[in-house]
Specification:
The chain is α+β, with helices and mostly antiparallel strands. The chain folds into two domains: 3-19 and 99-193, Pleckstrin-homology domain (PH domain)/Phosphotyrosine-binding domain (PTB) (PH-domain like, Roll), CATH 2.30.29; 33-90. The chain is built from seven helices and seven strands, in the order E-H-H-H-H-H-E-E-E-E-H-E-E-H. The strands form two sheets. It has a four-stranded antiparallel sheet with strand order 1-2-3-4. Strand 3 and strand 4 (118-123) form a beta hairpin. Helix 2 packs antiparallel against helix 3 (62-76) and helix 2 (33-55) crosses helix 4 (80-90). The protein is elongated, with a radius of gyration of 24 Å.
C-alpha cells in the first residue's frame, strides 16, 4: 500500500520524498561499528584459518577432522558482530527504497520497512520542536536530516506521564524546505491550541 493511500482526502500534500540512497549507504558502511567489525573479523578469521590449515596437514587423522567440524561452528558464533554489521550494510539499499516521507497541511507521514511496512502519522499538535542536522556525508551531498521532537502522554493508572521521543526524516535533499514547512504548520497548530 502506498503512502498516499493513508492520507485523508481533506489533506493537501505539501512535500513528499525519499532518502538519498548514496548517503544512507555511506552511513551504514562508515558507522561506529566498522572498526570493531574489521578487527573482530580479522581475529576470528585468523583462528578459523589456523583450524583449517591444521586439519589439512599430512599428519592429521580422522579424529582431528571431527574436531575441525566442531571448532568451525564454535568460531562462527563469535563472528556475530561482524555478521550483524554486514547485515546492516546489505539491508541499507532495500531500506532506503522502502522509506517514504510525506508532509501535508495536517500531519507528517513516515512509511518504513523492508519486510513489515509501518506508516506513522504525526499530527502537528504532537510536535514540540523541529531541528536539522547534517552529518559529514550529508554535507558532501547537500542533504540533511529533520529531527522532530514529539510529545506523547503515557498513562499509569490515573496519572498522566509526559514522554518525549524523536523521529527523524533522514537524508533528504531539500531538508531546509521541509524544516521550514513543518515549522510553519507546527506553529500554526500550536497557536490554535492556545
Amino acid at each position: 500500500m502506498s503512502l498516499t493511500s493513508h492520507i485523508e482526502p481533506y489533506e493537501h500534500i505539501l512535500w513528499s520524498g525519499t532518502q538519498n540512497k548514496k548517503v544512507s549507504v555511506m552511513k551504514s558502511i562508515f558507522n561506529p561499528m566498522l572498526p570493531k567489525a574489521v578487527l573482530w573479523g580479522i581475529v576470528e578469521l585468523g583462528f578459523i584459518l589456523l583450524v583449517i590449515i591444521s586439519s589439512h596437514s599430512d599428519s592429521s587423522s580422522n579424529t582431528d577432522k571431527s574436531v575441525f567440524l566442531i571448532l568451525i561452528p564454535f568460531f562462527l558464533g563469535p563472528l556475530m558482530p561482524v555478521l550483524l554489521y554486514l547485515g546492516g550494510v546489505l539491508t541499507a539499499v532495500p531500506s532506503v527504497k522502502k522509506t517514504n516521507y510525506c508532509i501535508t497541511d495536517q500531519a507528517v507521514y513516515i512509511q518504513q520497512g523492508i519486510f513489515n511496512t509501518t506508516t506513522k502519522r504525526i499530527p502537528y499538535q504532537q510536535i514540540i520542536s523541529v531541528d536539522t542536522k547534517q552529518s559529514f556525508f550529508n554535507k558532501h551531498t547537500s542533504t540533511g536530516d529533520v529531527i522532530l521532537k514529539l510529545d506523547e502522554i503515557m498513562y499509569s493508572g490515573k496519572h498522566r506521564i509526559p514522554r518525549y521521543r524523536k523521529t527523524i526524516i533522514e537524508n533528504i535533499a531539500d531538508y531546509e524546505e521541509v524544516y521550514q514547512t513543518i515549522m510553519k504548520y507546527q506553529s500554526l497548530f500550536a497557536a490554535d491550541m492556545l
